[in-house]
Description:
This protein is α/β, with parallel strands linked by helices. 38% of the residues lie in helices and 21% in strands. The protein has 16 helices and 19 strands. It has helices spanning 74-78, 84-95, 100-116, 134-143, 167-179, 199-212, 224-234, 238-244, 262-271, 279-284, 292-298, 312-327, 335-341, 344-349, 383-389, 417-435, and strands at residues 7-12, 15-17, 25-27, 30-33, 36-40, 47-52, 56-60, 62-67, 119-126, 148-155, 187-191, 215-220, 252-256, 274-277, 302-304, 367-371, 396-401, 404-408, 411-412. The strands form 3 sheets. It has an 8-stranded parallel β-sheet. The protein has a 7-stranded mixed β-sheet with strand order 3-2-7-16-17-18-19, covered by helices on one side. β18 (404-408) and β19 form a beta hairpin. The protein is globular, with a radius of gyration of 21 Å.
Amino acid sequence: MPAAGELDLAIRGGLCVTCDAAGTVTAGDLYIHDGRIVAVGGATRRARRNLDASGMIVMPGLMNLHDHLRDMTPGLDAAEGLKLDEMLRVWWRLNEAAGAAEYETMAAYSCARLLASGTTTVVDHLYPFHRDGLAEAAIAGYSSTGARWYLARGLMTRGYDPICEPLAVGLARVRALLAADVAAERIMLAPVSFRQADAGDYLAAREFAAAHGLRLYTHVAETEAEVRTVQAEHGCRPVELLDRLGFCGPDVTLVHCVLLSDAEIDLLATTGTHVVHCPSNHMKLAKGFTRVRDLLDAGVNVALGVDQMADMFCEVRQEVLLQSIRHEDPAVIPPALALRMATANGAAAVGLGGRLGELVVGALADVICVSARGLRIDPILDAAWSLVHRASGGDVRHVVVDGSVVIEDGEFAHLDVEALRKQAMGVIDSYLANTGIAKTRIEL
Length: 444
């Protein structure tokens, strides 16, 4: 502990929703030094820098465990109303026009949007890699914003030939990233799904990850067609096949998991495999109901992802509402649990359980301050309830990542957002022209 008067940052006057296992809520200042939380409440101490959190709820930064940040947004409109596999075929055709400029600019733009709405950590499931330099471009985009980022480096070896990537080429490109000093803990090796990669790709990914200290990641059990195909080709269900391939374990994150058997849930619990649920995406694409309550009851760690939807506050609320209607029980996912799914559970899935996602002494200092005064949120009787059912990304005022102030009073400290917006709109206009979409972006 540093001596009095030597702390880096104090966040003063807020109500701390710690998102710890006990659901602790406490009034008091939060103190940060060397990128870590050193005190929550307690005696008043001096700091070199102070953030005024009066009238605000202070909480851990939200963690978005699944997104595709290089999306050019018009793709959603071009495929509107289509279910997943049909929508993907439209996106893949459009994605042929994307290159390094699109990947870098949209990674930065999407990260900035997430940061402004309180998301401090994002896992970007990035693919396809139909040109050289795309991962490097995306990493440059993430890094320019101050977000805590992880690259789930996709392996797409089949599905749409013009943008598929041979497995050997993909692994060679990952070796090049590591050789260029991209930290192994920031990379997850991520075969896209059994619809875009074969069983041998998963075996190779497991071997490569073990050799290079990488975590693993994939979409799985997302459609009925996927389940039927895996059963016909391998005689088992998708998660069972992953386990046979060695692709389950505490270093593995599985996204969506809409269609699970009881045996697969038990398998996930036994192996310590993490699951990410994306409720808004599942509703938009009519995927069905992931058995979140059953997974949690079995001891599976379940985190949340935005997956190209709005923001993490929306996903936390949707998690509560979607599971309520599925179970016909409004108490099935309590608000405090939904917040932990978006914070501490996300930290566990990236290998930082107990070190991120909670406002506790010793944790990495990713912190957000949410304005809680005014017509939209007041009165507050239960702070966790108010965050889940009343707050939105637009209420975020301060954002701290790794102890550094990224946003203060709603303004980025070191990022020219207007310049980034203009750059992004120019990239999107070029992209629209290159893909032949006969639409003009509306400029306001």
